[in-house]
């Protein structure tokens, strides 16, 4: 699969259209529409799958890192050691938790969409809107840019069902 940025250029050079490029053969006009539809569907499914994997990665990275951070905080708080080591360990653990949380929110914000409870509008919020919003899991309390109402908005993988 060529990078989408060079697809049009590539098609232009080869004197074919995007669907021919994607399906790997010359297409007659009558079956063109069907192919176009299939290719679009396949691309949509691929994107959905990629998004699902990204969200899985988010958990796989975040959960162990935060657990490790909490263990470090516990050790630094209760195990006998010099004060400077306590401070270094605590600072390191907190920094790690913060950095991982920022990265995790970044992944979550970019992958898929959030769906407004009131009007059903699906959109991508800004990083800070996402990061500062109260949340349980991936459902975040945010203001919808379409209807302006605040609601608990769940993460969805596609723009439409
Ligand atoms: Zn709305």
Task: Give keywords.
161 residues; alpha+beta; 5 strands; binds zinc ion
Question: What portion of residues belong to β-strands?
Answer: 5-15%
Give the CA-based shape. elongated
Identify the bound ligands. zinc ion
For the record, give the distance between the C-alpha atoms at the N and C termini, rounded to a whole number: 25 Å
| SSE pattern | HHHHEEHEEE
Proportion in helices: 55-70%
- Strand order, largest beta sheet: 2-1-5-4-3
User: Rg to the nearest angstrom?
Assistant: 23 Å
Low-confidence stretches: none
Number of helices: 5
Number of strands: 5
Largest sheet: 5 strands, antiparallel
Structural class: alpha+beta
Integer average pLDDT:
89
Assembly category: single chain
Give your account of this protein's structure.
This protein has 161 residues and is α+β, with helices and mostly antiparallel strands. It has a domain of 50 residues. It has five helices and five strands. A five-stranded antiparallel sheet has the order 2-1-5-4-3. A hairpin with a 6-residue loop joins strand 1 and strand 2. Helix 3 runs antiparallel to helix 4. The longest helix is centred in the first third of the chain and has 50 residues. The mean pLDDT is 89. The site of zinc ion has 8 residues, from loops.
Question: How is this structure best summarized?
Answer:
Helix content is 63%, strand content 12%. It has 161 residues and is an alpha+beta fold. It has a domain of 50 residues.
Itemize the secondary structure elements and their pairings:
Elements: H1 4-14, H2 18-23, H3 29-78, H4 83-110, E1 113-115, E2 122-123, H5 127-132, E3 135-136, E4 139-143, E5 150-156
Antiparallel strand pairs: 1-2, 1-5, 3-4, 4-5
Bound molecules: zinc ion.
Zinc ion is lined by residues 116, 118-119, 121, 144, 146-147, 149.
């Amino acid at each position: 699969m060529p990078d989408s940025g060079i697809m049009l250029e590539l098609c232009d050079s080869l004197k074919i259209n995007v669907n021919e490029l994607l399906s790997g053969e010359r297409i007659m006009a009558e079956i063109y529409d069907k192919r176009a539809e299939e290719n679009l569907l396949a691309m949509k499914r691929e994107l959905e799958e990629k998004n699902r994997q990204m969200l899985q990665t988010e958990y796989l990275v975040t959960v162990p890192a935060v657990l490790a951070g909490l263990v470090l905080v516990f050790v630094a708080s209760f195990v006998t050691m010099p004060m400077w080591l306590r401070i270094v360990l605590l600072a390191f653990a907190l920094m790690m938790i913060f950095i991982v949380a920022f990265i995790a929110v970044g992944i979550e914000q970019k992958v898929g969409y959030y769906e407004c409870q009131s009007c059903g509008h699906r959109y991508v919020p800004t990083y800070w809107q996402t990061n500062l919003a109260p949340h349980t899991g991936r459902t975040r309390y945010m203001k919808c840019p379409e209807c302006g109402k605040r609601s608990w908005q769940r993460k969805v993988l596609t723009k439409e069902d």
